[in-house]
């Protein structure tokens, strides 16, 4: 776990990295090209019906990539290019998802929307909590004699004199 | 923790579209002509239908109808 944290820390942006360019030098710092939902959709929808885009989209969908993730990535790229604002990007996401569903169904490809309920995960959680409850009941009903002998063993182990350099003498 | 906003906005729009469908089925010419018809100005209603959310819901509804046609024709 520690190794992963170090890697993540190294990949993080350097403090001040956002200020390495003048304000307004980046596309997203300029006024957006498309300011309304309609204009943004007029930009996206014809491109989504393009054969080259459709082929690559189908490939990604077949890989099991959720449509919600794809829609978010597409709109974020639009924001980065200065095409539209984040607000417009958020608003057009449902239309992008519906459009991708239409494309996938037209091609006969099964897709993952990213909004499916994780029934297996929910079942596992309930199984774990049921097992924990059973275990607690079992521990509560356990014979007290057995517990006392275990506690005595622990006390005897602690009474042994420590042989370290910093140990107290006498 | 980062969460994808697409899930939330899609859920809201989905709910909006379903409400639109329900309203469309509930409305009938008889109820419009009835005595209990509201005397409130319709200006607010027009404004509501022009909100970006409502416009997006309309687009989603249109694409959904296309999907239904596609699935029905198969």
Write the layout of secondary structure elements.
The complex is a heterodimer of chains A (170) and B (74).
Chain A: H1 2-11, H2 37-48, H3 51-62, H4 67-80, H5 86-107, H6 119-140, H7 144-159
Chain B: H1 5-26, H2 29-33, H3 43-49, H4 52-73
Helix pairs in contact in B: 1-4
Describe the structure in your own words.
The complex is a heterodimer of chains A (170) and B (74). The mean pLDDT of chain A is 83. The relative contact order of chain A is 0.09. With 170 residues, chain A is mostly helical. Chain A has helices at residues 2-11, 37-48, 51-62, 67-80, 86-107, 119-140, 144-159. Chain B is an all-alpha fold. Helices cover 76% and strands 0% of the residues of chain B. Chain B has helices at 5-26, 29-33, 43-49, 52-73. Chain B is globular. Chain B starts with a helix and ends with a helix.
Can you give keywords for this protein?
heterodimer; A: 170 residues; mainly alpha; 0% strand; flat; B: 74 residues
Shape of chain B: globular
The arrangement of helices and strands of chain A along the chain is HHHHHHH
Count the helices of chain A. How many? 7
Average predicted local confidence, pLDDT of chain A: 83
Structural class of chain A: mainly alpha
In short:
The complex is a heterodimer of chains A (170) and B (74). Chain A has helices at residues 2-11, 37-48, 51-62, 67-80, 86-107, 119-140, 144-159.
């Amino acid at each position: 776990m520690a190794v992963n944290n170090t890697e993540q820390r190294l990949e993080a942006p350097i403090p001040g990295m956002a200020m390495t360019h003048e304000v307004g030098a980046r596309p997203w710092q300029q006024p957006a090209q498309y300011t309304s939902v309609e204009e943004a959709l007029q930009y996206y929808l014809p491109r989504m019906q393009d054969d080259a885009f459709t082929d690559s989209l189908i490939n990604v969908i077949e890989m099991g990539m959720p449509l919600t993730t794809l829609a978010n990535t597409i709109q974020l790229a639009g924001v980065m290019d200065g095409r539209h604002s984040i607000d417009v990007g958020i608003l057009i996401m449902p239309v992008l998802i519906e459009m991708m569903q239409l494309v996938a169904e037209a091609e006969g490809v099964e897709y993952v929307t990213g909004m499916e309920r994780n029934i297996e995960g929910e079942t596992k959680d309930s199984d774990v909590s049921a097992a924990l409850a059973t275990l607690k009941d079992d521990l509560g009903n356990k014979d007290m004699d057995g517990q006392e002998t275990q506690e005595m063993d622990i006390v005897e182990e602690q009474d042994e004199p420590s042989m370290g350099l910093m140990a107290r003498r006498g | 923790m980062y969460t994808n906003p697409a899930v939330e906005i899609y859920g809201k729009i989905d709910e909006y579209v379903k409400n639109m469908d329900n309203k469309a089925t509930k409305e009938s010419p008889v109820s419009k002509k009835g005595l209990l018809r509201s005397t409130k100005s319709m200006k607010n209603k027009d404004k509501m239908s022009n909100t970006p959310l409502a416009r997006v819901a309309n687009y989603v509804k249109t694409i959904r109808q296309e999907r239904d046609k596609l699935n029905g024709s198969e």
